[in-house]
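Chapter summary example.
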Amino acid sequence: MKKLLLSSLLTILTLTTLLGQQKNADSIAIKIDAIFKKYDAKDRPGCAVGIIKNNQLVFKKGYGMANLEYDIPNTSTSVFDIASVSKQFAGYAIAKLLTEKKIALDDDVRQYLPEVPNFGKKITIRHLVHHTSGLRDWPQTLHAAGWRWDEAFSFEDIMRMVKNQQDLDFEPGFKYSYSNTGYNLLAAIVAKVSGQSFREWTEMNIFKPLAMSSSHFSDDHTEVIKNMAYSYYSSDKGFKKSLNSLTAYGSSSLFTTVEDLSKWAIHFTQSITEKNPVFMQMLEEGTLNNSSKVKYGYGLAYGFDEGFRTISHNGGWASYQTVLMHYPDQQLSFIILGNSGDFDLGGATREVARALLTYRTKPANNTTSTALVNKDTPNVKVSEDMLKKYTGSYQLGPGWAVTITLENGQLQTQANGESKFPMDSKSDSTFWINAYGASMTFQKDSKGEINSLRYKHIQLAPRITPWQPDFKLLEQYVGTYYSPELKTEYIISNSKGQLLISSFRLGESNLGIDPTTENQFSASIGAIKFYKDNQNKIAGFKLSGGRIQNIKFEKRM
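The structure predicted for these 557 residues follows.
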């Protein structure tokens, strides 16, 4: 009788547990469906989502279409290019070789890749892992050299670019600057040390052991990929195909699915729990020359979200937008793989996290707090006299400024080299710029004068007196400029007081005046700073911006 009662109790407990799990799964599905409902249509691309809890894939689903030409929907088995989320696999490969003592963190990269130039400063594997090498990032560098965004970027192109680099952007270890190039070199080191191609090494050491049968690093952009989710961008004529001919394995170019990537996520979490030495190596932070810490290493970013420890990476390329987010202390991970240029990855990541975790909420002092302002906050009326006080130029960073103008009763913001965008007044000092997805708040000094603005609640931009050249002197900048490093030529011309910059591959565009620095202009390829010879004549310019610094172009005529 006791055995029968015990058996009945165990059955009831098992059923209760299963029913509780099912109820929880149903609740998760309802929440996730609500988040991605706007992408779930037969006439648009969307995404695939996976949620892993306690080492189980508890939710998997696709939204929108994987192929608009043939009406194929996204599913958890659709294959996406996961862009920079790929970096952790190169990080794992390096960590494994380190624990096997086949390489050392402070080895000179030229020990394995002698084609890397000798810059007079040692670049180590450690520098590559933590993005502190000073090597130029390949997307912006190759674009400046004439590559268009819709054509092939190959691993061989990247290696040639490195071979021809003439100067480092900064001394190795001096600062953190995200460099895709560094992770391509890590892949090349793996190949050199192992005697296998990077694709072969990852296949044998990661994908086959984890039964990730739909995953591979692309080393041939013409290869046919089964169950491919193609990527699209939106236009005024509907969605158009994004062209993806990238083979930058190591930094990106991993094709995989939600179901495959969940196997890696589970293995990752289990390995951290078990303190697997390879994965412990992957969690090591970087250190700069001044002893400051770098919260990035081995293809992973380390941080906190409302007090929850996070290990994550996101990616974006050719309208693919992806993220793999871990909350290790909660045994929770989620995957979002998008194939649409208008996909709001940041918003989706935040919404999924809030649906799965219990967040502490922070009360605001008032309804116009900049922390609460967004596009849905009601607009308010601000007097034209007040709006006039905000007009002028503000410096956000080196070579980066915004100019605020008042047109037809509304403020407009224009960053150097960009278009003008309207600013919606959310209070008498805070404005929302829909094009940026962010706010600007103007600030007064002790005398009540507007002397700065704060962008995205964080970045302080002081008011500046803009540099304005005498248009009679614009002719001094006209000429042909050549970069020995990029083997590329640009022509600068003067068209009725407007400087134009053109190249054979990229065509012609305006050269905008940068108000922050004398002799500095902005272009689609970056910031251009002209320099003079000892006779005070323009001798060339240096191209900088984002993740490249001071690529030299010499004036030829």
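To summarize the output: The chain is about 25% helix and 30% strand.
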